[in-house]
Amino acid sequence: MKKNLRGILSLSLLAFLFGCEKPQLSDLYQHKPRLVVISNFTTLDGIQVQVSKSRSPLDNGGTEYITNARVEIWEGEQLLERLNLNDTREEKTPFYTSEVIKPRIGVDYTVKVSAKGFESVTATSRIPERVNLDSVLVEKLKATPDDPGFVRYDFDLAIYFTDPLIERNFYHVNVFQKSITPLKDGVDFLEQTKKLVFGSEVNSNYIVANYDGGLLIEDKLIDGRAIRIPIPISMRMPAHLQNFDELIVELRSVSEEYYLFHSTVSRQQDNDDLPFSDPIVLFNNIRNGQGVFAGYSQAKQAVIIKPK
User: Model pTM?
Assistant: First the structure.
């Protein structure tokens, strides 16, 4: 289960955000709890679903997870699998996971969730066709001496891909930095991978910085074109380093509900520091509940930073 921890941590944050929407007057006096369902699924893993309880705007407590729910995945009228609750002794965050299903591209999957004391909820989504990366390049690399023993590298990480013509497409570009640091014994090394998070200053007419890292892209203005997305990056590394960092780019081709949900969450987070801004209504495709059930496909390429 360790390979899925990063995704589950992200889902935990999404569940928490549903308790943070700006309240309407009627909500302050009466709140009927509903099921909150969060799931982003792809072809590489089974389907994982997190189920929690919605909170009143006046409730400042943590996320209350539902561990006695019935969670099913359907394809049309056929029940594919009833999901099992994970072992919370290994992972503290409870979620339901499939053991049989390996989702396929272009197939409509429906999640059905029921729990005692709540109205049953459903949602449907599919995994879009994968769009491949054409290339990933380090461009305009500049090395500048920094503190003693360190060098600062500034460059554009240029991501190239071709958007399919005459169809609506949505993307989520993630960038991971993989570094290898030798330990003092000169034999062992420490390998670390982190996801890069970008600020709202990168936002444009078709790009939104995702709250949990990466960039969300809508192809409304770039339909059918060869795309170049330059991401300005600055990193500081030891001057004597022989193993330079590797950047891994993941291009997710995401469903419309994936894009709408993550982009509205991101815009809501940006507005938290603007008290007089208009409220952002979180997108929701869970019928009778809250949350998101959304598919995506992915392609990856890596590039190593090689100073001249």
Answer: 0.84
